[in-house]
Structures are given as C-alpha cells and as structure tokens.
Amino acid sequence: MSSKMYELFKKTLEKYLPGKGVTKRITPDQLELKRFEDLEHYKDVLYFCGKCGQCRYVFQEAYWSRVCPSGELKKFEAYYLGGKNLLLWGVLSGKLKWTENLAKILYHCTLCGNCTQQCQIPEIHHYALEWLFAARIESVKRGIAPMPEHRKFGEWTKKEHNPYMELHTDRQKWISSDIRRELPEKADIVYFVGCTSSYREIQVAKAMLDILTSLKLNFTILKDEWCCGSPLFWTGQIDIAKECAKHNIEEIEKSGATIVVTSCAGCYRMIKEIYRNKFGLEYSFEVLHAPEFLLSLVKDGTLPLENEISEKVTYHDPCHIGRHMGLYEPPRELLKNIPGIELIEMTRNRRNAWCCGAGAGVKSAFKDLALFAAHERLKEAQSTEAEILATSCPFCERNLRDAAKAYNVNIKVVDIIELIKYSM
C-alpha cells in the first residue's frame, strides 16, 4: 500500500462515534441497535462474531499490539471478547446455564472497550460493550453476581456514600477547617471531588483546590457530595447508583452552579453520560473534566503556566474519558502548555491505549488482574524513556502507583492537575 493510500485509509479509521472515542464502522446493511438495553436486545448479533481473534490485537496500528488484559493474563479463550460472545450466545440459546463460574468470567474484565475498538464487524465494534455490561445486570438479577467484594462496597455505599469503607463525615477531612468554613452555598462552579480523591489520592484534590483558590474563581465543593455511583453501576448495582445520581444532581442544582468540574474520569463519565442516557435524569449544568476546564483557563489567560518542568512525560489515557467519551486531545494539549515538558507517546495510545486495569470492579475483586495490567502499562511507559507517567484519573494513578511499588518500577506517576499546580 502506498503512503498516500495508507493516509487515506488511516483517516477512515479516525472518524469517531458521536461523543465516543471509538471509531465508526459503516456497512450498507448493518444493524442499528439501542444502547443500555437488556441482554436479550443483543441476542441476534452475538453469532456475528467470527472468532477471528482480532479482539486480541490492535487493528492495523501499534504493531498489532495486544489489547485485552483479562485474556492476556488468563491465556484462555473465555476471557477474550470472542469467548465471552460464545458464552453469552450459549446461555441465551439455552445451551449453557447461568452459574457463578460464568459470572466470575464475565466480571474478570475492566470493560475498557479496547476489544470492541479492534473488532471490524460493525455491530460488535459499536455495541459489544453494551452486552458485556448487560450480562452483568442479568447476572445480578439471577443472584449470581456481583462478586463478594462488590456486594460489600455496595452495602457500605448505601450507608456511608463511598465504596472505600470510610465514614461519610470524613469525606472533607482533607480540606482545612478554615477553607471548609469559607466554601459558599452558592457558586458558579462546583468541583465534584469524587471518592478516590477524597479518601485515597487526596493530593489530586488538594492540587485542584489550590488552583481554584489561587485563581479566585467563584467555586464551591458540595458539603454533602456522595459517590458518583460509577463503581456500583459498572458492577451491576444499578439501584444504589441511581440513588447516588439523584442525590448529587439535587445538591448541585441547589448550588446554582452552571459548571461541574471533575478530577476523576469515572465521575466525569457517570455524571455526563450515565445520569442522563441511562437513568433519564435531567440537569441544567455543564460537565467538564479537569483537563478541559484548565485548558480553557490557560487559553483565555486566566491560568498562566510559568514554572518550567524539564522532564520527559508520557500520558496514559483513562478508558472512561478516552474510548468511552472521546476526550483524547485536551489532556495532551494541556501538558504541552507546561514549559519544559517533552511529551512522548506510548505505542498504544488514544483509542488503542492499554487499560490501567483498575475499573469495573476489577481492582477490588481481581487484584492479580489489576496489578498485571498496570505493570504492563508501566513497562510500556518506561520504554519511552519518560521520567513521568501522567494521567487524568486518580483511580488510574492509584493502580499504576500500586503496581510501580509492587514491581519496583522506577517512574513517577502523577495526575496532570498536580503538574499544573507545580507550573503555576
């Protein structure tokens, strides 16, 4: 193939589905399906899978690198998308039974969507993530899921509004009492902190708070913020997740805010997409992820970046804002605005990015998979010779740092917000 033909071909790969970071595949007679439907809705397309194995590799790019953490760890067909399609076809056609072992295989997956990006059958490319999630809902209905660890944090979230087994009264413990007292009831901007930044990666929350305070923006932090519902939703605990969603919308609307800024990729996707498109909840505010918001402040001159960071940096795309929401360029553009930074891409980036391994309940229920995936990503980051691995999700940051410690990998893992704070 000539270089000109390849460039034309590549452009066809880069047309994305609306609001998504997964490319569009179009054929004249392809089926149009709905999203967020019950498993039965997708029954007739499961047999479209040709078991070709393309769900295991990047299609036509990134040296055909591997893409599925679950399959690569287990090395067995059932853990790849092709195998899961066959298992689901089996139970829906009555040839297999719903069992706890089946549920365990279905949950041994971060729902990162990399397999769907690589499949070239349009119906699977566009919708496989829908039925993988719907299979979890069905498993919960049948009483064989979620995993015990998920049930535990689900019950705790009902009581204390976070999945970390922490007290709700300690949610804002990271904020000094002086600043807490000064936070207004009403403001133009709400910083939605999220559970991970509130209880575990508090340096991210502190950096964001320092930025907002230094710029004297009209912002607040909800005094009664609850979990966004993401860990509950993706483990099939829909009712608790919806309760969280209703509460958070009510609290944000009471603040009068027109903009909600998130620092967690899971919170961003949950509030921006799931609250409306799955739960049917309406709200009047705009939802921005921190890199989008901070980049807009850099561009209009509100946020000058003056302190140099003379380091080589590589960027990890969180799945929740990348493939799931199409937010690839703002984090990179923001990094490029920091003086001194040399941004180097990993081989698997943007739509082909390897998952950190933490999401969809994996970090709590399948710790070996979470560490395996994160270690693979760290090795890829090291191959760029970067000194810093930056991301824009505290949950990714946490899992990557846990793996760096477990495997003695010498690379600094940080959130972009922390770099921005340093560069101000």
Summarize, please.
The chain is an alpha/beta fold and 424 residues long. The chain has helices at 3-13, 69-74, 81-92, 100-107, 114-118, 122-141, 148-160, 177-182, 195-199, 202-214, 230-233, 238-255, 265-277, 290-299, 329-336, 362-365, 367-383, 394-406, 416-423; strands at residues 189-192, 219-220, 259-262, 286-289, 312-315, 342-343, 388-391, 412-415.
Oligomer: single chain
Mean pLDDT: 96
- Taken as a percent bin, the fraction of beta residues is 5-15%
* CATH fold field value of the largest domain: Rossmann fold
Contiguous helical run count: 19
Overall geometry: globular
Distance between the termini: 47 Å
Low-confidence stretches: none
CATH architecture of the largest domain: 3-Layer(aba) Sandwich
Keywords:
424 residues, alpha/beta, Rossmann fold, 4-stranded parallel beta sheet, 8 strands
Description:
The structure is a single chain. The protein is of the alpha/beta class and 424 residues long. The protein has three domains: 12-141, no CATH class; 149-298, 3-Layer(aba) Sandwich (Rossmann fold), CATH 3.40.50; 305-423, Rossmann fold (3-Layer(aba) Sandwich), CATH 3.40.50.1860. Helix content is 46%, strand content 7%. The chain has 19 helices and eight strands. It has helices at residues 3-13, 69-74, 81-92, 100-107, 114-118, 122-141, 148-160, 177-182, 195-199, 202-214, 230-233, 238-255, 265-277, 290-299, 329-336, 362-365, 367-383, 394-406, 416-423; strands at residues 189-192, 219-220, 259-262, 286-289, 312-315, 342-343, 388-391, 412-415. The strands form two sheets. It has a four-stranded parallel β-sheet, with helices on both faces. The chain has a four-stranded parallel β-sheet with strand order 6-5-7-8, sandwiched between helices. Helix 18 links the parallel strand 7 (388-391) and strand 8. Helix 14 (290-299) crosses helix 15 (329-336) and helix 17 packs across helix 18 (394-406). The protein is globular and about 65 Å long. The mean pLDDT is 96.
